[in-house]
Each structure stands twice: as C-alpha cells, then as structure tokens.
Specification:
Chains A, B: GO terms for molecular function: DNA-binding transcription factor activity; transcription cis-regulatory region binding. 2 copies of one chain form a homodimer. With about 190 residues, chain A is mostly helical. Chain A folds into 2 domains: about 50 residues, Homeodomain-like (Arc Repressor Mutant, subunit A); about 140 residues, Tetracycline Repressor, domain 2 (Orthogonal Bundle), CATH 1.10.357.10. Chain A has 10 helices and no strands. In chain A, helix 4 crosses helix 5 and helix 8 crosses helix 9. The longest helix of chain A has 26 residues. At the A-B interface, helix 6, helix 9 and helix 10 of A face helix 6, helix 9 and helix 10 of B. The first copy, chain A, binds a DNA duplex (30 and 30 nucleotides) through helix 2.
DNA sequence: CCCGCGAGTAGACAGCGTCTACGCCACCCT
DNA sequence: AGGGTGGCGTAGACGCTGTCTACTCGCGGG
C-alpha cells in the first residue's frame, strides 16, 4: 500500500503546507490547494467545511513543525538554562524568518479564534518549555516567572514580526538581528555572565 | 463652500478609516469602501490605481492618528523620562487594543513593502521619540541605545499582538496586561526606583 | 441483484479586484 | 457665443474567489 495515498484530507493539508512555504500566505486559495492536490474545487468541502478550517489545519502543521524544531534544539543544547533559552529563541526567530508565510498564517487571529479548532492550544506546550526555562534562569526579581516568560515571548514575537518586514529603522548593520535578540535576552534574563 | 465636499479622494480614505474602525480589516473591500463613499466601484481607481494603494492611504491615516496620540501623551506626561516612556508604551498598547482593525492594517507587510508609498517612513518619527527617551533613561549597559529602543519597541509590539488575540496562556488575571507591560519596561529599562 | 451510501465532480451564484469603453459636465479658446 | 477638450465618475465585462447544491460513479452488504 502506498503511504502517500492515505486519504485526500492529508493530501490537501500537505499541498497547502507546500504552497504556503513556497508562495506565501496569499497563494492559499481553496481552489488552488484543491488544484495542487489534483481534485476539483468542491472536494475539500467534505473534509473541511470552510476555507478557514483548511487553513487552520495547515497552520497546525506549522505549529507541529515549530514544536519539533524546538524539541530538537532542546535535545542538542547543553545543560545551562541560559544557553538553552538562547538556543530556543534563535530557533523561534529562524523559523519565522525561514518560513515567513507559514509564520504569518500561524498567527492570523481570524484563524486562531475561529471555532473550536483549538489552534491556540497548539502553541501552549511551546510556551511551557519557555516558561520552564525562564523559571530556572530567573534572577530573584519581583516579576513572577510566568509573566516574565510571557514578556520574553512577546519580545521574541515582536522581533520576528518587526524584522520580518524589515521595518526596524536601525537596520544599519547586517547583524542587527543578532544584536536585537541579545538585547532582549539580556534585558529579560540579565546580562550574560562569563 | 462645504468643507466636507473636498474631493472624492479624501472621502474614500475617510470612509475606509470609518469602516476599519467599525468592522475590522476584513470589511475593507474596495467596492464596499466605494459604496460607503457613495460612488461606483470604479471611481476609486482614478485616485488609487490599486486596492492596496487605497489601503495604504487608510493605514497612513492610522499612523497619523497614533502619532498624534503619542504627541499628546508626551505633552501631558511629566518631565521624568522613565514615566514618559511608560506613558508612551501605554498609549501604544491602548491604541492597538482600541483600534484593533486599524492596528492590524497598519502592520500588514503586504501593504508596507508595496511600492514607494513610504508607509514605513511614516512610523519613523514615532520610533525617534521612543529612541530619544530610551537614550535619556538608559543605564550604562553595553547595549547601544538604538538597539535597546528597537528591542523595547519589539516587546511592546509583541505584547500588543499577542494579547490582541488573547493567546497568552497566562491570562489568569484580568490585569495581566498591566503586569506584562511593567515587566517589559522593567526588563529593558531597569526596575522602577522610588 | 440491487440498493444505498460515501466520495468526488460539475455547475451555479454572489462578491471581489481590475480593465475598458462610454457619458457628462465644466471650462477655455477663438 | 459656440465648439472642442479633458477631467471625473458610471457601467459592464472578465476571471478569480468561497460556498452551496445537484449529480454521478463505484463499491460493499442485505
């Protein structure tokens, strides 16, 4: 049995993932995905009642991919929580930069709060890893660990967002992204000690 | 002469601003804007060659509004740079929360890098104010002021983004937004001294 | 054997952005 | 004063989109 022929549903999602990685979010029309999957434009409707249901499934694949990468990073990184956090942050930003279309899709709020697809929950384990590391590396400040983790995540997300469309006016140096990331980590976790 | 009748161009932008504030970004179809402005669907074409040109003009109005609010905040806030920064941050987040649709529109990258509309430049004075304040309040760390300002802006932007779709898993308390903002400010600028 | 039903097809429909051909009215020039 | 001209908005067409519905085909069970 050919493992590639396992149902149209999976083929549609795969085609969508391929499409968004290759051509970006704007190319993700329902009809185009159906075309790439080799079926008529009405076929997806049996598995995905609406267009955003299909898009949500594709976005979930993106979250799964990101989670897998982060887990791999956590496996490869050393024991020091601070460097583990830095590696996690780098992975997050690299993912956003390398898969811009997918990253945008993953955080389209009209997908996130559409129905009970529980796309939001998909990002929760990721946050848990971050929060855990933050709790380990945290200096004894008065900021509670979950809040600190949230603030740091927001910072990472903002950096990804802002440099994705290259809008940071301080883009004088090619290595500004690296500097920005270090600044964020230093700010939230304290400067690196060596 | 009626000051309200000054050209279709302004009327279209005004209708668009009204529409995005009232119904959100998804309602901003070219034809709907034309309808609200009381003209046929082909009329906008004379002033805006394409749909995104019109959207960009609307987004620019949003940047102008935000800039005006920030300037007002700077006029009202006291002399202490730290509290001025806090007020600026609060204004930024309040704007994002109150005008979600407009905020999303303003940062749609397909508008930002579309042509020479220089939407990007519109946000530059805003950043200048932030960078200036950061330079004043900065502790003598090794992080250069522009980088620090960029990191802080990214943090604000990320907070706005993340809590806009309520995805922060730590939403246990209604006042988490406030805590998140304080955490970000404390992290980048050092804890408030009193 | 034939019935039924799951799965995908095909066509219709309204709405969209873009393009083009066409009126209309105001103004300027001789 | 009359006639041309050009700007401004209309109206319809085109191909695309998402959704809905009627249908066809093939396979398995009573």
């Amino acid at each position: 049995m050919d493992v590639e022929e396992t149902g149209l549903r999976a083929r549609l999602v795969a085609a969508g993932v391929d499409l968004v990685l290759r051509e970006g979010q704007a190319a993700l029309s329902l009809r185009e995905i159906a075309r790439r999957a080799g079926v008529s434009h009405g076929a997806p409707r049996r598995y995905f009642p609406t267009h955003v249901d299909l898009l949500s499934a594709i976005a979930r694949e993106g979250f799964a991919d990101l989670t897998a990468r982060v887990e791999q990073t956590m496996r490869d990184a050393g024991p020091d929580p601070r460097t583990r956090l830095a590696a996690l942050a780098r992975t997050y930003l690299d993912f956003a930069a390398a898969h811009r279309g997918m990253f945008e899709l993953m955080f389209r709020h009209d997908l996130l709060d559409s129905g009970r697809l529980r796309l939001r929950e998909t990002s929760l384990p990721l946050f848990a890893v971050l929060a855990d590391l933050v709790a380990q590396v945290r200096r004894p400040t008065d900021t509670p660990a979950p809040v600190l983790a949230g603030a740091l995540w927001a910072n990472l997300h903002g950096i990804a967002q802002l440099w994705a469309w290259g809008s940071l006016p301080l883009a004088t140096d090619a290595h500004d992204d690296e500097a920005l990331l270090r600044a964020a980590l230093d700010a939230h976790l304290g400067p690196t000690r060596h």
